Amino acid sequence: MTAKSRNVVYWITTGLIAFFIGSGGAGQIWQYRVNPQGVVPVLRYPEYFFAILGVWKVLGAIAILWPRLPLLKEWAYAGIFFDLTGAAASCVAVGVYGAYGFHVLAPLVLAGLTVVSWALRPASRRVAPLFVRDPKTLAQAESSHT
Questions:
Q1: pLDDT tens for residues 61-115?
Q2: 131 touches 81 (CB < 8 A)
Q3: Distance of alpha carbon 68 from the chain centroid
Q4: Which end of the chain is more exposed for a tag (fewer CB within 10 A), N or C?
């Protein structure tokens, strides 16, 4: 994959994830304010959980789009992945699959897109490694031990 195509795929997947997670979070916040009993009883969560989750989704969508702040992005990607896989598991646990398993498959597809976005993110959006293996330094350290 060329650098340009990698960048294009990164921005497409990141844009899709930010859109679905951000708009979904905004919808959850709105629904909590208007009709908190709408979805929550089906999944057996406390009502306030829906609002908290909505706020974190909006913030996560902003975090993966915002330049720099790579450590925050790592946490946001992890949170988005946990949210989506948890959503699929929650639907399976209560037997709410939707038509053709949509309520299970849709979050899992989005979780896959999240992993693609995370894996293709540019170096400026990655956390620096804690330990760097510099071949020169490693060779010096090994020669001093012999």
A1: 999 999 989 999 999 999 999 999 999 999 999 888 888 899 999 999 999 999 9
A2: no
A3: 17
A4: C
Cα-based angle 94, 21, 121 (whole degrees, multiple of 5): 125
Residues counted in the chain: 146
Is 50:32 a contact under the CB 8 Å cutoff? yes
Q: Phi and psi dihedrals of 42, rounded to 5?
A: -65, -40
CA gap 11, 85 in Å, rounded: 22
What are the tokens at 123?
Answer: 């170096």
Q: What would the two tokens of residue 112 be?
A: 């896959």
Angle between the 3-34 and 102-120 helix axes, to the nearest 10 degrees?
Answer: 140
Task: Show the domain range for 122.
Answer: 3-144
Number of domain units in the chain: 1
As a whole number of angstroms, the distance between CA 14 and CA 35 comes to: 30
pLDDT in tens, 20-69: 999 999 999 998 888 877 767 778 888 888 889 999 999 999 999 999 89
In the block, tokens 């992890």 appear at: 78
